[in-house]
Design a protein that fits this description.
The protein has twelve helices and five strands. By secondary structure, the protein is α/β, with parallel strands linked by helices. It has a five-stranded mixed beta sheet with strand order 1-4-3-5-2, with helices on both faces. The radius of gyration is 20 Å and the shape is elongated. The chain starts with 7 loop residues before the first strand and ends in a 5-residue tail after the last helix.
Length: 310
């Protein structure tokens, strides 16, 4: 893995309750990584360090600021010798982070800020932003399509980052995740998901494509018709997770990356949202062959996610 592509600078702000409380993440190591932008066009990573190091009243912070010249960690993330600490980068009152990951983001996630605008070179800043998020996924063996939510996704009523900043360089969140995946595939070799005691079997490409065509794509188009951006992003990511688990190249890559397990939550969602209702319908109609078909599809997903078959 090319850990020398960019240097990670670690210059920590002083410990104090409102910015850097000095307490470790509740999970020990990060469970996920929140994509932010600084919301302060033209301000560099150094500018943000100076700002947060001077604050005494405002309860807000983030772990990392990335511009066109540097990747600057101002609160320990666990990528260096110091264990990861909490920062105040997502409002505690929102519940999307709890629903998706089972934790408040401040207690379990790293906040990564993209610096943009003014004299900051978008392309160079974006390259470092992509690389750093890929590096974090590599260190903790996380699938970027599952474990990198945007601040907007977690708090859609209040926040638009990093979508607005990405748009200044004609990028989208989906393109960001694709670029992170491409960077990650170059950086690492396949390995099993940690804390998993069960093996997984690659999802056959024909099964993955069938599930995408029959269920995931129609759900994406239904979300698009309703103007549901969060739903569109979710189903886009779900389709890409199926592709990654089956070795199908992503749209932004000419070659397939390493096979990794399908996230258990994805397998369970597809089974409960679509396959189980179809199985019950076939059973009630007395069509045992069709019922067996949906049971087989469910078991393909379970094997791809390392879940015991039923």
């Amino acid at each position: 893995m090319d850990t020398q592509k960019y240097r990670i600078e670690r210059r920590y702000v002083a410990i104090r309750p409102n910015i850097r409380p000095g307490t470790r993440l509740s999970t020990g190591t990060p469970e996920f990584f929140v994509a932010h932008d600084s919301g302060n066009p033209g301000a560099t990573a150094d500018n943000h360090y100076a700002y947060f190091n001077s604050q005494t009243n405002r309860s807000a912070s983030a772990h990392v600021f990335i511009d066109d010249t540097k990747i600057l960690e101002i609160i320990p993330t666990g990528t260096g010798p110091e264990p990861a600490e909490k920062a105040w980068h997502v409002l505690y009152g929102v519940t999307t982070d709890n629903d998706l990951f089972g934790y408040d983001a401040n207690d379990a996630a790293i906040g990564v800020e993209f610096c943009y605008g003014g004299r900051i070179n978008f392309t160079e800043a974006y390259k470092r932003y992509v690389w750093y998020l890929a590096y974090c996924c590599s260190v903790w063996n996380k699938n970027p399509y599952v474990f990198i939510p945007s601040h907007r996704q977690l708090d859609p009523a209040r926040r638009q980052d990093p979508d607005e900043a990405l748009a200044t360089g004609r990028k989208t969140l989906n393109q960001l995740l694709d670029d992170i995946s491409t960077e990650l595939n170059v950086m690492r070799t396949p390995r099993p998901t940690p804390n998993s005691s069960t093996s997984f079997a690659p999802l056959p490409a024909t099964i993955a494509q069938s599930l995408i065509d029959n269920y995931v794509s129609p759900a994406w188009f239904a979300s698009q018709a309703k103007g549901d951006q969060v739903g569109m992003t979710h189903f886009h990511n779900l389709a890409n997770n199926l592709r990654v688990a089956s070795g199908i190249p992503l749209a932004s890559s000419s070659a397939a990356g390493p096979l990794i397990p399908l996230p258990k939550s994805n397998a369970q969602e597809i089974i409960f949202r679509w396959l189980s209702p179809a199985w019950f319908k076939a059973r009630d109609e007395g069509n045992s062959a069709r019922a067996q078909h949906f049971n087989n599809l469910a078991n393909y997903l379970r094997r791809a996610a390392g879940i015991p078959e039923q």
